């Protein structure tokens, strides 16, 4: 019973912030320090004003200890504690006193907070509470300039580093394709590749770069999968085939767009809207249409990057030429400057001239190319008409050749025509013979083909269905995982309630026990009453029989000497019996007294009187010593 | 130009070249303080020459022979080092070049970052409870990265997202 109470007490004391060690599991094991700490913590929770003036640790000085005990006792009495309490309760503790005091304090503990935390608060309320707690905590902190924030770590570092990502180089060896990794690549990965944390120029952008890299890969894979599942499968091509087809399509499209844009661009000048790179690209396109006629063929446009980067080497080589010239012409500065100026001027002029000529030439070339196409068209037409004419000339020539011997030639021609018509008929019949099985075959193959198509589209739809199912199950799994997590958190929040129900169970049990004991007590009480009654009736009976016997014997005693003697014996017997009864009763009372005393002894033993006395003696000595030292200091002063 | 590379011993050459390629791919180029054999102009020329050489070789899809031919004025040790480096990093450089080609428009989004903030109250309302999104965009325009910072409430964010989705749809149709 008491252990149960102690466990509840210790549990609630731990909740108030008292550090009760694990091996302490009953109030009996509480030391004075622990008692003082527990009481002070409880007082602080119940009434902060009252409790904050008291220290939870016992001071070393004896008189200070005494004072702390007194003020603690006073505080408890202020709260309404009815029991006996004083400094001795804390310093020279006895188990029952402490237990009743602690029970009183635990009952006084405010319950509202516990109930509030039990109720499932809404998410927004929780968030607000967290926000307000955080703000309160931050308000309590001193302000630190942001530059010194690393001292306080008050705010997350994310506020001071913006998100900058840089491309990373990660080892990636394709295994699935079955290609052997290139030796140079593996060498690079092994010998020269920096660790990923050292790659970005600023250390702060490592996480950003990693995140960027990761999302890039994920989104690329996802997009490809989506596209493949939605469109790629329907084309019935292999992934590589699909890709190459798509690439060709895209290139054609870009080509068209760019060509349209260059035409648009040459007619109207609004270059400022476009970026420099794009302008460059446009110009390169424009230039090449005028000069090399590359786009007209359309086959060399395979890689857009080609156009952007072919220019760079040229530009850089020009730079290098000028740079090589520079140091050699380093004589006298003014000379050089004047010379340079002149040179610049002449060069500019030259440039202008050249560009003017370039433009002229460009126009000329354009014109010429147009005329060339026109001429070539004309040429083709002429050639065609020429061929037609030649044909007709040949036929006419033959007929003219045949004219002189007209009749025989006519007959010959007729026989020729007849024989050829016969041949045509025979060929037709032969063709018919061949045709029938071929048509049959074709029909059969067509049917096969259509059935296969049906099959494949059926399988396609099946695959799609499977994909959908996979997605659904993945979502479901995610949902269930979420539910599982939620349930886990709920479960973690539960144990409180479990212990509570255990307590109520215990309480109910105890109540049942008490009822049983009460019944037994009433039984015993009725037994004793019955016994009392019996005893009473027996004593009455005894008295009456004694009176009757006494009277009879007394009557006979006057007559007979022996009877008188027996009367005397009777009287003596009666007296002795009464005495005997008296003694038995006395023994009973004494036994009861003894038991009382024993109990008293036990309680006194429980109060640890001897050790407490020793402690008191020691403390008394300590106080005296303190007093004498104080007196000595006074005297010295 | 690239001939200046011969000032570096061939065994150190590989490391230097890989750092140059790093620079081409948008990371840190090598630092001049680590290499004392070149003057500043030489250093700049060398870096420039090597970078454009790498871009040229990968962009043109040069074969090994063509690369060796265009490196004709180097001695054989350095030539091999350059070729090895090029072979090892070809994919990476190609990727960087593709990125550059992708960036061929007036403005391009480099990075974006967002923070969600909960406005608890305003100067007029004591309990506001409004979520605000702080969106930071790093936009590269004419080669200069310009930070753009905007604050959006829920509706504005929705508008932004739907317009971006519409744009994505157009891009998908182009594909």
Automatic annotation (TrEMBL), chain A:
Coiled coil (UniProt feature): 337-364
Keywords: Coiled coil
InterPro entries xref list: CCDC22 (IPR008530), CCDC22_CC (IPR048348), CCDC22_N (IPR048349)
Protein name, as recorded: Coiled-coil domain-containing protein 22
CCDC22 coiled-coil domain ranges (all copies): 129-607
UniProt key word Coiled coil: yes
Residues of the CCDC22 N-terminal domain: 2-110
Lineage per the UniProt record: Eukaryota, Metazoa, Chordata, Craniata, Vertebrata
Family recorded in the similarity comment: Belongs to the CCDC22 family.
Record-level Gene Ontology MF annotations: cullin family protein binding
Biological process per Gene Ontology, one example term: positive regulation of ubiquitin-dependent protein catabolic process
TrEMBL record, chain B:
Origin: domain of life: Eukaryota
Positions of the COMM domain: 108-175
Record-given protein name: COMM domain-containing protein
């Amino acid at each position: 019973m008491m252990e149960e109470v102690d466990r509840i007490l210790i549990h609630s004391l731990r909740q108030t912030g008292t550090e009760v060690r694990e091996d302490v599991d009953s109030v009996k094991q509480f030391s004075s320090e622990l008692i003082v700490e527990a009481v002070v913590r409880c007082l602080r929770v119940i009434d902060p004003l009252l409790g904050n003036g008291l220290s939870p640790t016992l001071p070393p000085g004896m008189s200070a200890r005494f004072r702390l005990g007194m003020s603690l006792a006073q505080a408890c009495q202020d709260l309404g504690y009815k029991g006996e309490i004083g400094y001795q309760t804390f310093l020279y503790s006895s188990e029952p006193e402490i237990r009743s005091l602690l029970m009183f304090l635990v009952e006084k503990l405010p319950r509202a907070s516990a109930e509030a935390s039990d109720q499932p608060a809404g998410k927004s309320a929780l968030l607000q509470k967290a926000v307000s707690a955080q703000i309160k905590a931050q308000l309590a902190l001193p302000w630190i300039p942001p530059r010194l924030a690393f001292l306080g770590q008050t705010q997350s570092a994310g506020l001071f580093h913006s998100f900058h990502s840089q491309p990373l180089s990660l080892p990636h060896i394709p295994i699935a394709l079955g290609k052997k990794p290139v030796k140079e690549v593996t060498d690079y990965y092994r010998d020269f590749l920096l660790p990923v944390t050292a790659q970005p120029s600023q250390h702060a952008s490592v996480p950003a770069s990693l995140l960027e890299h990761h999302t890039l890969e994920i989104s690329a894979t996802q997009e490809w999968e989506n596209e493949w599942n939605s469109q790629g499968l329907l084309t019935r091509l292999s992934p590589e085939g699909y890709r190459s087809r798509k690439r060709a399509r895209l290139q054609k499209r870009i080509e068209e767009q760019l060509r349209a844009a260059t035409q648009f661009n040459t007619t109207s000048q609004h270059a400022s809207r476009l970026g420099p790179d794009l302008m460059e690209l446009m110009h390169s396109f424009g230039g090449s249409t005028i000069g090399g006629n590359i786009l007209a063929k359309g086959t060399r446009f395979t890689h857009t990057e080609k156009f952007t980067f072919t220019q760079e080497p040229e530009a850089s080589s020009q730079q290098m030429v000028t740079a090589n010239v520079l140091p050699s012409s380093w004589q006298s500065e003014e000379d050089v400057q004047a010379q340079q100026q002149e040179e610049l001027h002449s060069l500019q002029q030259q440039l202008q001239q050249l560009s003017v000529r370039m433009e002229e030439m460009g126009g000329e070339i354009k014109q010429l190319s147009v005329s060339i196409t026109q001429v070539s068209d004309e040429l083709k037409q002429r050639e065609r008409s020429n061929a037609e004419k030649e044909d007709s000339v040949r036929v006419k020539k033959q007929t003219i050749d045949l004219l002189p011997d007209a009749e025989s030639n006519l007959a010959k021609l007729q026989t020729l025509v007849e024989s050829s018509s016969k041949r045509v008929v025979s060929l037709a019949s032969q063709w018919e013979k061949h045709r029938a099985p071929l048509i049959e075959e074709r029909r059969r193959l067509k049917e096969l083909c259509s059935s296969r198509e049906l099959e494949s589209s059926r399988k396609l739809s099946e695959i799609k269905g499977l994909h959908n199912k996979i997605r659904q199950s993945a979502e479901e799994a995610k949902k269930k995982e979420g539910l599982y997590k939620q349930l886990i958190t709920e479960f973690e929040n539960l144990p409180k309630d479990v212990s509570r129900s255990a307590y109520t169970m215990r309480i109910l049990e105890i109540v049942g026990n008490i009822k049983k004991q009460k019944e037994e007590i009433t039984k015993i009480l009725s037994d004793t009453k019955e016994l009392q009654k019996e005893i009473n009736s027996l004593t009455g009976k005894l008295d009456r029989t004694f009176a009757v016997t006494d009277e009879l014997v007394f009557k006979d005693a006057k007559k007979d000497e022996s009877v008188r003697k027996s009367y005397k014996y009777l009287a003596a017997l009666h007296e002795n019996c009464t005495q005997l009864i008296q003694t038995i009763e006395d023994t009973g009372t004494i036994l009861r007294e003894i038991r009382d005393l024993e109990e008293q002894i036990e309680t006194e033993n429980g109060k640890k009187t001897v050790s407490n006395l020793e402690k008191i003696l020691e403390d008394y000595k300590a106080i005296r010593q303190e007093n004498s030292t104080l007196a000595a200091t006074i005297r010295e002063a | 130009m690239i001939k200046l590379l011969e000032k570096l011993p061939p065994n150190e050459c590989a490391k230097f070249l890989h750092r140059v390629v790093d620079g081409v791919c948008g990371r840190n180029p090598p630092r001049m303080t680590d290499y004392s054999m070149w003057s500043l102009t030489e250093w700049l020329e060398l870096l420039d020459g090597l970078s454009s050489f790498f871009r040229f070789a990968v962009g043109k899809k040069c074969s090994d022979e063509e690369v060796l031919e265009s490196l004709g004025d180097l001695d054989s040790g350095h030539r091999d080092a350059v070729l090895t480096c090029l072979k090892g990093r070809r994919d990476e450089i190609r990727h960087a070049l593709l990125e550059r080609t992708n960036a061929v428009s007036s403005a391009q989004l480099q990075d974006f970052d967002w923070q969600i903030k909960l406005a608890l109250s305003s100067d007029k309302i004591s309990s506001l409870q409004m979520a605000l999104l702080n969106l930071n965009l790093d936009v590269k325009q004419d080669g200069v990265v310009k930070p753009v910072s905007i604050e959006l409430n829920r509706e504005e964010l929705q508008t932004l997202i739907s317009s971006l989705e519409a744009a994505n749809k157009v891009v998908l149709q182009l594909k």
